[in-house]
Amino acid sequence: MRSDALVLLICDPSVVYKMKNIECTTVPGYSANASCYLKALNWNKAVAQMDVDLVKPLYNISVRIQLFKRDYSNKFQPFLIDVTVNVCDLFSRRSFMAYGLIVLKVTKRFSNFNHSCPYDGHLFARDAYLDESFIPNFWPLGLYKINISIMENYLRPPNGNVGVIVWYVQSMEPIKRKKN
Ligand SMILES: *[C@@H]1O[C@H](CO)[C@@H](O)[C@H](O)[C@H]1NC(C)=O
Ligand SMILES: *[C@@H]1O[C@H](CO)[C@@H](O)[C@H](O)[C@H]1NC(C)=O
Ligand SMILES: *[C@@H]1O[C@H](CO)[C@@H](O)[C@H](O)[C@H]1NC(C)=O
Ligand SMILES: *[C@@H]1O[C@H](CO)[C@@H](O)[C@H](O)[C@H]1NC(C)=O
Questions:
Q1: pTM of the entire structure?
Q2: Where are the domains of the chain?
Q3: Closest Cα to atom 14, ligand 1: which residue?
Q4: What atom of ligand 1 comes closest to residue 55's alpha carbon?
Q5: Which InterPro entries does this one have (predicted)?
Q6: What is the pLDDT of residue 12?
Q7: Could you confirm whether domain 14-172 is CATH 2.70.220.10?
């Protein structure tokens, strides 16, 4: 075997996570003007464009990330991840949780959600996707729903749900173009 062929074989991802759908929900008094959509790049990859305006500054943001996997009866069941991460601690580097670091990597790379608190005004993400290298363990093949709830002052009243982002992601074997 030629060595370049070997390298290709090793680098070829066995599983890709393709975004299938995205939904954004705003909460009156906290967020407005949400726009979320996907752009398909090829058979294996779609990227998300997200925009939202904050109605007032947020000083103590937490994000709850829940993962669901679709079962054989087409219902989404909780799967593996249900974590709440304080984003303000994260960006001021007080927190080093594994899933917190994933959130940090994804948001830093794709959005203007990449500085210390508070947050105000227009937030956006461009060309966002779930990079396989962000995920510590492979998710079995199937359809997943990622529910990202954004909260202000979680655990300490007055608290508020600021908005919800839902991503649908297909864990699948990459579709390869056949030669000839
Ligand atoms: C939402 O968009 C409208 C129209 O562009 C703008 O007037 C309004 O200020 C925006 N809302 C917020 C909270 O920024
Ligand atoms: C944050 O995101 C904005 C917009 O993408 C970018 O211009 C800026 O350089 C980023 N800042 C950091 C610290 O990564
Ligand atoms: C997402 O999670 C929040 C908080 O647990 C819940 O209120 C909401 O209904 C969920 N949204 C979806 C679409 O599952
Ligand atoms: C910020 O939120 C955290 C929970 O994520 C809470 O423990 C803390 O008391 C809050 N801080 C303030 C100043 O409200």
A1: 0.82
A2: 14-172
A3: 53
A4: 13
A5: DUF1091
A6: 53
A7: yes
